[in-house]
Amino acid sequence: MANPDPGKLTSAAAETLAWVDRAVIGLNLCPFARAVRVKGQIRCVVSDATDTEVLLRTLCEEAQRLLDTDASLCDTTLLVHPHALCDFADYNDFLDVAEAALSEMGCDGELQLASFHPDYQFADTEPEDVTNASNRSPYPTLHLLREASIDRAVQAFPEAEAIYEANLRTMESLGRSGWQALQAQCRRDATETPATPSQSA
Questions:
Q1: 8 Å CB contact between 174 and 154
Q2: What is the pLDDT of residues 107-128, one digit of tens each?
Q3: Which end of the chain offers a freer environment for a tag, N or C, measured as fewer CB atoms within 10 Å?
């Protein structure tokens, strides 16, 4: 199989970071994201993996890298994988495998895994339900977060459990057409401001 086009990997990084700016931060889907973005503590890695074995190995490598790096330099990692687990059901099944691998590495209490996918679907919702968009990234993405950073963020935001409900209201207010317009803007941003894969941004 031919290697994926490096230009497409660069585009995936740029579009993912545009999504962070316009959706995650712009819509305040995660009140904790702005600080690490402004400080340049987000590492965005785009994997050219086409199978789960390679992807899992990359995830573990990125987890170890995060553990070995001072949080002031890199607080969180987005592992974008445009060519693997494009089917959401397969992606969802992989999460259990990924969690188990991280646990075997000794990441319990150190790192947490969050999940984002273009076809993300919460339990008990229909695929077309716009509230699913709160977890819909441009490409399948695995998000590694530091437990210590989450704990500090929760202390600073005592009503953290209300974020999910607030996000549902935000997406309902935005509506399907608003979400589609935001996605289109992220794609335009990606062409105007290219990003290098594996960059801290």
A1: no
A2: 999 999 999 999 999 999 999 9
A3: N
Share of the chain above pLDDT 90, in %: 82
Q: How many residues does the chain have?
A: 201
Beta bridge partners of 115: 142
Burial 47-58 (b: 16+ CB within 10 A, else e): bbbeebeebbeb
The three-state secondary structure class of 145 is strand
Q: Tell me how far apart the alpha carbons of residues 20 and 201 are, in angstroms, rounded to a whole number.
A: 11
The whole-angstrom separation of Cα 197 and Cα 77 is 12
Please check whether residue 52 is in contact with residue 46, taking contact to mean a CB–CB distance below 8 angstroms. Answer: no
CA pair distance 117, 58, nearest whole angstrom: 18
User: Confidence band (pLDDT; 50, 70, 90) for 47?
Assistant: very high
Neighbours of 61 (CB within 10 A): 13
Residue identified by tokens 């490096």 is 6
Pairing between strand 141-146 and 111-116? Answer: antiparallel
DSSP 57-126: HHHHHHHHHHHHS-TTT--EEEEE-TTS--SHHHHHHHHHHHHHHHHHTT-TTTEEEEEE-TT---TT--
Cβ-based neighbour number of residue 95 at 10 Å: 14
pTM for the whole thing?
Answer: 0.91
- Average pLDDT of the residues in 97-115: 98
Query: What residues pair up with 45 in beta bridges, in sequence order?
Result: 79
